[in-house]
Amino acid sequence: MNRVILCTGGYDHTIKFWESSTCLCRRTIQYPDSQVNVMCITPTKQYLSVGGNPHVKLYDINGNDSTPVTSFNGHSNNVTAMGFQNDMRWMFTSSEDKTVKIWDLRGKGTTRILTNSSGVNTAQLHPNQSELISGDQNGNIIMWDIGKEQKVETLVPDGKVPIRSLSLSKDGSTLVAVNNSGKCFIWGVDEEGDDLNEKKQTQNQQQQQQQSQTNETNINKKNEKEKEKEKDKEIEIETENKQENDQQGTNKQSMVSREKSRFKLKATINAHETYILKCLISPNSKLIATTSADKTIKIWNIDDQFSLNQTLTGHTRWVWSCVFSHDSNYLISVSSDHVARLWDLQKGETVIHYSGHHKALTSVALCDY
């Protein structure tokens, strides 16, 4: 049986590791530099990555040393999101300093920087590992091509209302985003981007094969030149509309590099009456959780036209973040009331309270598989 890794952090400058079933704290790491904004467990389950203001630090989960294994310095403001490439070759971090940085985990330093026009509040890696989606302070949701360091498409769902959080389903087919006005937006995401990448790879392979052959006739040479011209035209079409569109109005979707959007808006929900701080799609892709400054957590049914499943009440202050269990039957939430709660979603009740922090909790990380 795999050991459950459960960590919480916030404004008391500590990170706590919990025995999930007994609510006993088994380890505390001091984090004196700043508050803890975000945490992420690596795919290998060996390290915990912690983002604060402005540093990112990596801790050994299985050790007892509070000294980080390594630190990543380069941001100049709050780190807001992070994640890892599947093979642990690199990680990404987003920040209020208007950048998303790609860090090479096999060496030190950044390999790529995605530069935005405003603070980046949230980001997530697409399952295809070559694209990333971010949400910013100016209300933009942007899909990036990581390799090219370019914007692929921009959505502006609610004018300049800041995007607070977003979540992609495991297969990348559903995107959820929430903002400061309490709205929740759900899109279906087209696979076209993956298809285009595959086509380009096939074209590159064919081109390499052609180049390796002897060009015996002028006709072959002309054909190759014509193909190159056609590809140049395709690149021009893909990149001719790169500027962001900050147009007015609700539910406007601005195209950056495609004539046809990969995103199809499925629903807009007035989910909460105030700030939504976190949204998350469950591992089984059947539920959406939203946490809010209104002290509640709401669970929404994806398969039932995004209807409200239940409202979880019990926290006495803002609910900053949450995480689903791997089987999607449980949820852990953290709040400004200093407490983390384990919820049984079948019963809609708190099963365990994790108490021990003495200031607001803003981040939680879980690995139970």
Explain the overall architecture:
Helix content is 12%, strand content 47%. By secondary structure, it is mostly beta strands. It has one domain: 7 Propeller (Methylamine Dehydrogenase, Chain H). It is globular and about 50 Å long. The relative contact order is 0.13. The model is unreliable at 194-204, 211-223 and 225-258 (pLDDT under 50).
Total DSSP E strands: 29
Biggest beta sheet summary: 5 strands, antiparallel
CATH topology descriptor: Methylamine Dehydrogenase, Chain H
The secondary-structure class comes to mainly beta
Strand content: over 45%
CA gyration radius, whole angstroms: 22 Å
The overall pLDDT, averaged over residues, is: 87
Query: Could you estimate the helical fraction of the residues in percent?
Result: 10-25%
Shape: globular
Overall tally of domains: 1
Question: Span between N and C termini?
Answer: 9 Å
What's the CATH class label? Mainly Beta
How are the strands of the largest sheet arranged?
12-13-14-15-19
CATH architecture: 7 Propeller
Count of helical regions? 2
In the CATH hierarchy, what is the superfamily?
YVTN repeat-like/Quinoprotein amine dehydrogenase
Quick summary of this structure?
By secondary structure, this protein is mainly beta. The chain has 2 helices and 29 strands. The strands form 7 sheets. The chain has a 5-stranded antiparallel beta sheet with strand order 12-13-14-15-19, with no helix packed on it. A 4-stranded antiparallel beta sheet has the order 3-2-1-29, with no helix packed on it. A 4-stranded antiparallel beta sheet has the order 4-5-6-7, with no helix packed on it.
